[in-house]
Automatic annotation (TrEMBL):
It comes from the Bacteria. It is found in: Cell membrane. This is Permease. One of its GO terms (cellular component) is plasma membrane. Its main location: membrane. Keywords: Cell membrane, Membrane, Transmembrane, Transmembrane helix, Transport. Belongs to the auxin efflux carrier (TC 2.A.69) family. It is a multi-pass membrane protein. The chain crosses the membrane at residues 6-26, 47-66, 72-98, 110-127, 133-154, 175-192, 204-226, 238-256, 262-281, 288-313. Signal peptide: none annotated. The keyword Metal-binding does not apply. Pfam families: Mem_trans. GO terms for biological process: transmembrane transport.
Length: 319
């Protein structure tokens, strides 16, 4: 994408992220009028975390046979940048986030974007069908890393004492999202395909994931907490919308990426906090309200971040 105006960049970014924002708003309205409550959100989140989201991840990998080796450098940049951001966020949280139970939420918010849905859509809007293979590889590879790191940071922040390595590995091994991704990678490598009735059934269930998770997130948003400028929600959102894109672009530049590959890194890094983070935090006993607030803030902020990032990198010749 060359010479794009800020307005055109903002429009396509808004076109991708606005539906998510509208579903969040629907969740807010349904909660206000009493159609759904916290009990509904708790049960729905269990359904998302244990069934529909694992199916979505599994099917997205199985149905797209990709050659990961062909995009080793791009994927290496994503993994390297994510791991460094994870360590930096952990260090920041340990020093500046007073409430221990909120530290895992902060850390996830910094490194974990909505790559598989919003990120992929942004990339295709910017570069067309040519970007589908590398962007899909990037999103799929990082999704596994995101979930492993998510279990690690939440296990640490939500435990009463020090978490043993064995307990952490156990949490990783039994996480439905990680299990689904690994099974998907194995099935993809073996080129296994589901019979049509199972494929359709899985597809129907997977399609429920994002709207249901976003409705629950919207219903959990606490506007008073958002208004607290020193709160975890705001710090996390700044980390997601500002720090993550700048950091990942610099890492990509250091590895020599340019053109479409640089665009993939930028657009994936400007995505809002993934709705999967809400399901994971709530399922593991964390503060889902904070996560919902961050999703709301970063969904709005990502519209500006992706548009501004595209125009700035185009102007300095990095795209």
């Amino acid at each position: 994408m060359h010479g794009a105006s800020f307005f055109s960049s903002f429009l396509f970014s808004m076109g991708v992220t606005l539906p998510n924002l509208l579903i969040l708003m629907l969740g807010i309205i349904l909660r206000r009028i009493g159609m759904i409550d916290d009990r509904f959100c708790e049960q729905a989140t269990k359904l998302v975390f244990n069934i529909t989201l694992p199916l979505l991840l599994f099917l997205s990998i199985v149905n797209n046979h990709v050659d990961y080796a062909s995009q080793a450098l791009l994927l290496g940049v994503g993994i390297c940048g994510t791991l460094i951001m994870f360590v930096l966020a952990e260090c920041f949280a340990a020093k500046f986030i007073a409430e221990k139970t909120e530290r895992g939420t902060f850390v996830q918010s910094v490194y974990r974007g909505n790559n598989g849905i919003i990120g992929l859509a942004l990339c295709i809007n910017a570069y067309g069908d040519a970007v589908f293979a590398p962007a899909s590889i990037y999103a799929a590879g990082l999704t596994l890393i995101y979930n492993i790191l998510g279990v690690i940071t939440l296990s640490r922040s939500l435990s009463d004492g020090k978490v043993s390595m064995g307990a952490m590995l156990k949490n990783i091994a039994k996480n439905p999202l990680i299990i689904a991704i690994i099974l998907g990678l194995v099935a993809n490598a073996l080129q296994l395909r589901l019979v049509k009735p199972l494929q359709l059934t899985g597809g129907y269930l997977a399609a429920v994931t994002l709207p249901l998770a976003l409705i629950c997130a919207g219903a959990s948003i606490n506007f008073r907490a958002i208004g607290q400028l020193s709160g975890v929600s705001l710090r996390s959102s700044i980390g997601r919308v500002l720090f993550a894109p700048v950091f990942m672009v610099l890492i990509a530049k250091g590895f020599g990426l340019k053109g479409m590959d640089m665009g993939i890194v930028l657009l994936m890094a400007t995505t809002p906090l993934a709705a999967a983070a809400y399901a994971m935090v709530r399922a593991m006993g964390g503060n889902a309200v904070t996560v919902a607030n961050i999703i709301g803030i970063t969904t709005i902020g990502s519209m500006l971040a992706s548009a501004l990032g595209l125009i700035l990198l185009s102007q300095i010749g990095w795209l």
